């Protein structure tokens, strides 16, 4: 049988991992309870919101299109 002599070190590493795991669990729980500020759906946050990302992408495209359009239809100034 093999018994590790540095079990103290091992347990401290394990407890660190446990803390990490607990934090991750807390975040998951928080996410479950939290409501998205953007689409008001539960389970994710605004910064992770797909709706927002989609809208932002759309917005960017719109802005880009507007820029292109304004460039194409250059005003006679
Ligand atoms: Zn959302």
TrEMBL record:
Sequence segments annotated as region (Disordered): 1-20
Record Gene3D superfamilies: Zinc finger, CCHC-type
Chain intervals with Basic and acidic residues compositional bias: 11-20
Low complexity: bias regions: 1-10
Protein name in UniProt: CCHC-type domain-containing protein
Naturally occurring in which organism (per UniProt): Sphagnum troendelagicum
């Amino acid at each position: 049988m093999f018994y590790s002599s540095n079990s103290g070190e091992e347990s401290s590493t394990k407890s660190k991992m446990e803390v990490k795991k607990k934090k991750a669990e807390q975040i998951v729980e928080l996410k479950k309870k939290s409501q998205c500020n953007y689409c008001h759906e539960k389970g994710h946050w605004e910064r992770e919101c797909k709706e927002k990302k989609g809208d932002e992408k759309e917005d960017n495209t719109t802005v880009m299109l507007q820029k292109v359009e304004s460039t194409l239809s250059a005003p006679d100034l």
